[in-house]
Design goal:
182 residues; Serine Threonine Protein Phosphatase 5, Tetratricopeptide repeat; 11 helices; 77% helix; 0% strand; elongated
């Protein structure tokens, strides 16, 4: 009977240690990179994100892409990180990759490639990508001009609060398309 009591004590002591260890665990490593970026320590943020990205952290890869896209305007480096993250299914990276192909930033303009990436992201319910698809169908860039299809994508984006899509739905051509669709 005493051996059972000893086992119970050992079990409870082990559980207590686990609870204590979990309570003192550090925040996620990416939080350190985010904090460095927020306080303006770009070098430290890049170092931390790069270390995480090397281990396949898609959020870190995307964040590096954004830092190079928004900060230093190093489109080649941004493209590199967006591609890594986008190929792993990161919707915002897919949207930025599509945008870079659409605008010709760091790559030659390629509307079909842009549409491919926007569609992947839009199918994950990314409102920005849905709006971009609306733009593409409105203007016939890389796809056949199709106001009904544009309307579909604008509505999806607008329903999520995308202001650009909401504004696009108020243009005469989209208002007319909406009337024809009824």
């Amino acid at each position: 009977m005493s051996s059972l009591t000893t086992l119970q004590r050992l079990f409870f002591a082990t559980c207590a240690c686990c609870v204590l260890c979990l309570g003192t665990a550090r925040a996620e490593p990416i939080d350190d990179a985010i904090a460095a970026q927020e306080r303006g320590d770009t070098a430290q943020a890049i170092l931390l994100y790069t270390n995480l990205a090397a281990y396949g952290n898609v959020e870190a890869q995307y964040s590096l892409g954004r830092m190079y896209y928004d900060g230093e305007a190093d489109y080649q480096e941004a493209l590199n990180w967006f591609r890594r993250s986008a190929f792993k299914g990161h919707d915002r990276a897919q949207t930025y990759l599509g945008m870079m192909y659409y605008l010709g930033e760091g790559v030659n303009k390629d509307y079909r490639e842009a549409q491919k990436w926007f569609l992947r992201s839009a199918n994950q319910k990314n409102a920005d990508a849905q709006n971009w698809l609306g733009v593409m169908y409105t203007h016939g860039k890389g796809v056949a001009k199709n106001h009904k299809e544009a309307l579909k994508w604008y509505r999806l984006a607008a329903a999520q609060g995308n202001l650009s899509a909401q504004n696009a739905l108020q243009t005469p051509e989209m208002i007319e398309s909406a009337k024809l669709k009824k």
